[in-house]
Inverse folding.
C-alpha cells in the first residue's frame, strides 16, 4: 500500500507473499512442557519464581517485604496495625512462657516422692500453664480482631487507588498495545496478592515468632539444646523447602493448563459466541480441543498427586530419621545427667512443635517472596499511572465558548511511523454545525478527539476563545465536550443510567432533559417499548434485562451525548448502524432542531447526504484539511485543470450509485417526501 503526503508518495511496507497453510496444525502453540506454550504470557510471568530462587535470596528479601506490607497496613489503619503487632508479640511470649511453665510441671512430676505430693507441687505450674494458654487465646483473639479491621481497609485502599489512577490515565497511554496486559496483570495478580499480603504476613510472623520462642526456651533449658534443634530441623527444613518448591512449580504448570481449558469452556458457554458456535457447527472442534486439555489436566493431576506423595514420603523419612537421632541424643543427655529429666521432656515438646512450625515458615516465606514480585509490578504500574495522569493546572475552561480556533495542529500517535494530523487549522463558532469528511484513516476521529481533550496536540495550538487548552485542566475540556462514537459502549446499566452517564452520574437524572434527549435521538420509542421503560437494565446479565439492536444502542448513545449538554457535541458516525429513517431523524434533530445557540456540533460521516446542511464541511486527506466550505461551495470547486474537487467527486460518486438504481421518476417522488436532499451511501 502507498499513501500520498505533502512530500510525495510514501512506499508501503514490503510484504512477503503469504505461503500456503499446513494441512493439519494444533489450534494453538503447544510445547512439550506445559509451561512452554504460554511462556512469556503476562499472567504467568512470576509463577514458580520462588522455586527457582535461592533460599538465601528469599530470606534477604523478607525484611523489606515485611516493611512494605507493614507500611501499607499502617497507612490504612495505624491503630489496628500497632495493635496487631503488639498482640502478636505478646502471643509469642505467652507461648514461650507456656513451654517453660510446662517444663516446671514436668520437673514437679518427675521429682521423687509420693504421687499426691508431686501432683500437689505441680499444681501452681499447671495453673500457670492454663493461665498462659488462656492469655495467649485472648491475645490471638485480639490479633484476629485487628486483622479483621485491617485487611478489608488495606484491600479497599489499594483497590481504590489502583482503579482511580487507571481510570484517569491519559488515552494515549491506554492506546499502547502493552498497556492492557500491564493493567490486567496488575489487577489479576498484583492487586490480588496485595490484598492478601496483610493476613499472609501475620501468618508468617506467627510462625517465625513461634519458632524463635521454641529456640529461646531450648537455650534457657540447656545451651547445648539449640544446636540439637538446628540439627534436627535442617533435614526437615530441607524437605519442607523441596516440597514447597515442587508445589510452586506444579502450580504454575497447572494454572497454565487451567487457563487454556477455560478458554474453550468459555467459548462453549458464552452467549456472544453461541450463534456462531452452532451455525458453523464449531461445537465438535471445540469439544475435542476441550477434551484434549482435560486429558492433559487429568494426567497433570495424577502426576502432581504422585509427586507430592513421593516428596512427602521422602520428607517424612528424612525428617523422621533426624528427629529419631535428636530424641536419641536427648535420651543420652538425660541418662548421663547432662540434662535434668524435666528439661529433656520440655525439649521434646519444643522440638516437636518446631517441626510443624518450620513447614509453615518455609511455605509462607516462599509465598511472600513470589507474591512480592507481583506486588513490585503492581507498584511499578501505579507509579507509571501517576506519571500519566491528565495535566492539572487548576484552570478551568469558560462555561460558554464563542470560538474554538485550531491552528496548525499536529498529532502523532505514540510509536506511530507517521503523523495522524499534520498541520490542521480551522475555526469553529458557537451555534454552527460542521462536518469532517474524508477517506478512512484521514484523521477525522483524531481531530475530534483532540477537540475533546482526549489527546493533547503534539504541535500547534487549540484555543477556546483566548484560552489555550494546554493551560486548563484536561478534565474541564472533557466535561464540555460530548462525544458519541461509532461503537458506543453498551453500558450494562438501566436505560436511564445509559442516558445520564455522559453527564457523570448513574443515579440521578434531570427528567425533562433526559426525555428531550431521547426524543431528539429517536431513543424514546426504544425505551417506551422496554418492559420497565427507563428502569429496564440494558443487559441480559441482569434479571429482566433486555438486549438492544445495534441501531437502537446508537440512538441511546446519541441521547447520552445530547443529555451531556456540553458546549461541543461530536457525533463520530454514530448513525452507521441505524436504519435510514432513524439516521435521518437524528441528523434532522441535530441540524434543524432547537439547536443551542452556544453549541458547536461536529458531525463525522461517510454518508455525505447527511452533511449537506452543515454550515461548514472540512475534507480530510492524509491528516490534512484539503478543502473546506459549505456544500454548495465545495460542489462548485474546481482544480486549475477543471477537475471537480475531492468533496464534489465523493458526493457525485455516492449520488450516482443510488440514481443508477432508481426507477425513472422515483427520485423526484422521494425528494418530494424528504425535506432535505440525500444522496446514497458509497
Ligand atoms: N489509537 C491509535 N493508535 C495509533 N494509530 C492510530 C490510532 N487511532 C488512529 N490511528 C491512526 O491514525 C490515522 C488517522 O486515524 P483516524 O481514526 O483519525 O481516521 P479517520 O479519518 O477517523 O478514519 P475512519 O474514517 O476509518 O474512522 C490512521 O492512520 C490510523 O491508523
Amino acid at each position: 500500500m502507498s499513501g500520498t503526503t505533502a512530500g510525495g508518495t510514501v512506499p508501503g511496507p514490503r510484504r512477503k507473499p503469504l505461503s500456503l497453510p499446513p494441512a493439519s496444525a494444533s489450534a494453538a502453540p503447544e510445547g512439550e512442557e506445559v509451561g512452554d506454550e504460554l511462556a512469556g504470557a503476562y499472567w504467568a510471568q512470576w509463577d514458580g519464581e520462588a522455586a527457582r530462587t535461592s533460599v538465601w535470596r528469599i530470606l534477604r528479601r523478607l525484611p523489606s517485604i515485611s516493611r512494605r506490607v507493614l507500611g501499607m497496613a499502617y497507612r490504612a489503619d495505624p491503630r489496628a496495625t500497632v495493635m496487631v503487632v503488639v498482640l502478636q508479640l505478646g502471643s509469642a511470649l505467652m507461648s514461650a512462657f507456656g513451654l517453660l511453665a510446662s517444663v516446671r510441671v514436668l520437673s514437679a512430676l518427675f521429682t521423687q516422692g509420693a504421687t499426691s505430693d508431686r501432683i500437689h507441687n505441680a499444681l501452681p505450674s499447671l495453673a500457670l500453664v492454663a493461665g498462659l494458654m488462656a492469655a495467649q487465646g485472648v491475645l490471638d483473639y485480639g490479633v484476629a480482631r485487628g486483622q479483621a479491621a485491617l485487611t478489608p481497609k488495606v484491600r479497599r485502599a489499594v483497590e481504590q487507588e489502583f482503579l482511580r489512577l487507571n481510570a484517569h490515565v491519559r488515552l494515549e497511554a491506554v492506546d499502547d498495545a502493552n498497556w492492557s496486559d500491564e493493567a490486567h496483570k496488575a489487577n489479576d495478580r498484583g492487586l490480588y496478592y496485595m490484598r492478601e499480603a496483610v493476613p499472609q504476613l501475620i501468618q508468617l510472623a506467627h510462625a517465625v515468632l513461634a519458632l524463635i520462642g521454641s529456640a529461646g526456651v531450648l537455650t534457657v533449658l540447656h545451651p547445648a539444646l539449640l544446636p540439637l534443634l538446628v540439627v534436627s530441623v535442617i533435614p526437615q527444613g530441607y524437605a519442607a523447602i523441596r516440597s514447597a518448591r515442587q508445589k510452586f512449580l506444579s502450580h504454575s504448570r497447572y494454572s497454565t493448563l487451567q487457563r487454556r481449558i477455560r478458554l474453550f469452556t468459555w467459548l462453549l458457554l458464552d452467549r456472544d459466541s453461541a450463534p456462531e458456535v452452532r451455525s458453523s457447527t464449531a461445537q465438535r472442534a471445540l469439544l475435542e480441543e476441550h477434551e484434549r486439555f482435560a486429558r492433559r489436566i487429568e494426567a497433570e493431576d495424577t502426576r502432581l498427586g504422585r509427586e507430592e506423595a513421593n516428596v512427602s514420603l521422602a520428607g517424612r523419612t528424612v525428617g523422621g530419621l533426624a528427629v529419631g537421632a535428636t530424641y536419641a541424643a536427648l535420651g543420652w543427655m538425660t541418662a548421663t545427667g547432662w540434662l535434668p529429666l524435666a528439661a529433656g521432656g520440655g525439649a521434646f515438646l519444643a522440638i516437636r512443635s518446631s517441626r510443624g512450625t518450620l513447614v509453615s515458615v518455609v511455605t509462607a516465606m516462599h509465598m511472600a517472596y513470589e507474591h512480592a514480585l507481583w506486588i513490585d509490578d503492581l507498584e511499578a504500574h501505579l507509579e507509571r499511572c501517576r506519571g500519566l495522569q491528565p495535566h492539572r493546572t487548576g484552570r478551568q475552561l469558560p462555561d460558554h465558548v464563542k470560538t474554538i480556533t485550531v491552528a496548525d495542529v499536529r498529532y502523532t500517535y505514540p510509536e506511530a511511523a507517521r503523523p495522524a494530523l499534520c498541520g490542521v487549522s480551522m475555526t469553529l463558532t458557537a451555534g454552527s454545525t460542521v462536518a469532517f469528511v474524508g477517506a478512512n484513516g484521514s484523521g477525522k476521529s483524531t481531530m475530534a478527539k483532540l477537540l475533546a481533550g482526549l489527546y493533547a496536540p503534539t504541535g500547534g495550538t487549540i484555543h477556546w476563545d483566548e484560552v489555550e487548552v494546554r493551560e486548563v485542566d484536561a478534565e474541564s475540556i472533557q466535561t464540555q465536550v460530548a462525544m458519541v462514537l461509532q461503537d458506543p459502549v453498551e453500558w450494562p446499566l438501566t436505560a436511564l443510567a445509559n442516558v445520564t452517564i455522559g453527564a457523570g452520574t448513574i443515579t440521578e437524572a434531570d427528567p425533562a432533559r433526559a426525555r428531550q434527549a431521547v426524543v431528539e435521538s429517536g431513543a424514546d420509542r426504544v425505551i417506551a417499548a422496554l418492559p420497565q421503560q427507563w428502569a429496564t437494565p440494558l443487559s441480559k446479565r441482569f434479571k429482566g434485562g433486555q438486549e438492544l439492536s445495534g441501531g437502537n444502542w446508537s440512538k441511546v448513545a446519541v441521547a447520552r451525548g445530547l443529555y451531556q449538554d456540553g458546549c461541543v457535541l461530536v457525533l463520530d458516525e454514530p448513525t452507521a448502524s441505524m436504519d435510514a429513517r432513524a439516521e435521518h431523524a437524528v441528523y434532522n434533530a441535530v441540524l434543524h432542531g432547537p439547536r443551542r445557540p452556544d453549541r458547536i456540533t461536529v458531525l463525522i460521516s461517510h454518508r455525505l447526504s447527511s452533511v449537506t446542511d452543515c454550515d461548514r464541511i472540512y475534507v480530510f486527506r492524509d491528516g490534512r484539511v484539503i478543502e473546506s466550505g459549505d456544500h454548495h461551495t465545495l460542489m462548485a470547486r474546481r482544480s486549475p485543470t477543471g477537475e471537480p474537487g475531492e468533496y464534489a467527486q465523493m458526493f457525485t460518486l455516492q449520488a450516482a450509485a443510488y440514481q443508477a438504481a432508481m426507477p425513472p421518476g422515483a427520485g423526484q417522488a422521494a425528494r418530494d417526501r424528504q425535506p432535505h436532499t440525500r444522496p446514497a451511501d458509497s
